Amino acid sequence: MGDQFEASAHLHTYTEAADWINGLIPFGIRPGMSRIEKMMEMLGNPHQRLKFIHVAGTNGKGSTCAFLTRVLLQNSYTVGTFTSPYITKFTNRFQYNGEDIPEETLLALTNRLYPIVQAISATELGSPTMFEVSTALAILYFAEECVPDIVVWETGLGGRLDVTNIVYPVVSVITNVGMDHTDILGDTVEQIAFEKAGIIKPGVPVVSCVQQPEAVEVLRKKAEECRSTLYLAGETFNYEYTGEQGSYQSFHFTGPFREYDIEIGMKGEHQIANASGALMALEVLRQYMAFVMEEEDILKGFRETAWAGRMEEISGPPRIVLDGAHNPEGAESLRKSIERHYPHKHLNLMMGMLSNKHHESYLKHILPIVDTLILTEPDFRRKMDAAELHEIAEGLKHSYGKPGLQIIVEPDWKNALELLKSRTEAEDLAVVSGTLYLISDVRAALLGQTDSEKGW
Q: What is the pLDDT along the chain (456 residues), one digit of tens a residue?
């Protein structure tokens, strides 16, 4: 199918290709499967030739994908990984064996998609969105260019109507359910759980670390309807924090098939839940799908997993931790992680947010431990004004703030970062938190990266 379109290749460089895909952003997030189904049909349904681990959830999707990818690679499997948003560069989203898609390959595949997108745009379906085109590009890359043994496949939003749901996986993972994207997914735990449960497919085992009884009920019902085995944390498998040594935290995992003592370098108790969910999914592959994995390689893979912008310490001075916590559950995990892993005299927190989130409950979780709060704005079209954040923070200061809490408003994130650094003494801790769009820029600035792009 691709060959007949070669003559109409419109894009000549990687930058043009990435700009064209990102130029589809104004078409927004339009839940629904019709456009991606049409694209796949026009390409000969390449997704049907691949094995996927489909990962959904409010928080922890990226970390779970990182654990799965690293452990499978350690066990000599070839792995495709599709994640969003990216931290440094658009090509980060499409990885084969931990390496980004080559720019020239992305250009060639985008030129194959270009006429298909134009053709669909001319129908009543309307233009495919940026995320739909990225998803199609990932499928083409994995199905035709590199053909991995397995693809670790992260949902964009929700699950049921998310375009990644075009695939039929070998195992599904639902990390957790929390209040995020309520403008699209619904504003109760049950409604959000229902959207996430949409990735459960007939006969495909599903692993989840969801806690809330009402969310568990939704998943259980969907799994029963699909006759899918549900592996549930606290029920089918358990994990228990067992301590910390150097930069590693350890936990004991008890599953239906085996027990493990696992060490991970990623900080925060929420990462123990993410690692356990990933381990349970790997156990399902090992037990039922003839995946061969040695225990020492499993342990090594978990130890060596790292994920940018998630409780990531950038070497100082001053000590700066980056964490893309941007919703209430993320804020609660961030607070617990700081208290557990980072002793400090004063805590200085810089944050910037998008305008569609539950910032009030986020601040309620974090304000009690903050000495100086610096409010800024991400360099992104849907940013929230620092002044609006300030209004919310001031309203909560009296009831939730630490005595003596100082709040500073600095809309320019570069100035805010300088302010944060200058105020953080040797015994203090600086944290940059909020939307990954802010984390991406701050991380590039701190690490001196010049080719940083960012996006959803």
A: 444 444 456 899 999 999 999 899 777 667 789 999 999 999 999 999 999 999 999 888 989 999 999 999 999 999 999 997 666 788 999 999 999 999 999 999 999 999 999 999 999 999 999 999 999 999 999 999 999 999 999 998 778 888 999 999 999 999 998 765 545 555 688 998 999 999 999 999 999 999 999 999 999 999 999 999 999 999 999 999 999 988 899 999 999 999 999 999 998 888 999 999 999 999 999 999 999 999 999 999 999 998 888 788 987 789 999 998 878 878 888 999 899 889 999 999 999 998 865 689 899 999 999 999 999 999 887 789 999 999 999 999 999 999 999 999 999 999 999 999 999 999 999 999 998 889 989 998 998 875 555 444
Q: How far is CA 414 from CA 262, 268, 365, 376, 387, in A?
A: 39, 27, 26, 9, 17
Nearest to 452 by CA among 309, 349, 247, 352: 309
Long-range contacts of 42-45 (CB under 8 A, 24+ apart): 42/1, 42/116, 42/119, 42/120, 43/1, 43/2, 43/112, 43/116, 43/136, 43/139, 43/140, 44/1
Q: DSSP character for 455?
A: B
Whether residue 205 is preceded by a cis peptide bond, meaning omega within 30 degrees of 0, is no
Answer yes or no: are the C-beta atoms of 66 and 297 closer than 8 Å.
no
Would you say 52 and 153 are in contact if contact means Cβ atoms under 8 Å apart? yes
- d(Cα 113, Cα 456) in Å, to the nearest integer? 19
Look up residue 18 and give its two tokens: 């990435």
- Across 332-367, b (16+ Cβ under 10 Å) vs e yields bbbbebbeebeebebbbbbbbbbeebbbeebbbbbb
In this structure, what DSSP letter does residue 174 have?
Answer: E
DSSP 141: I
- Contact, 31 vs 161, CB < 8 A? yes
User: Residue 71 contacts by C-beta under 8 Å, 6 or more apart in sequence?
Assistant: 278, 279, 282, 293, 297, 298, 301, 302, 305
Q: What are phi and psi of 82, to 5 degrees?
A: -120, 115
What angle do the packed helices 103-121 and 34-42 form, to 10 degrees? 110
Token duo for residue 328: 């209430």
Cα separation of 370 and 41, whole Å?
53
Strand, coil or helix: 400 = helix
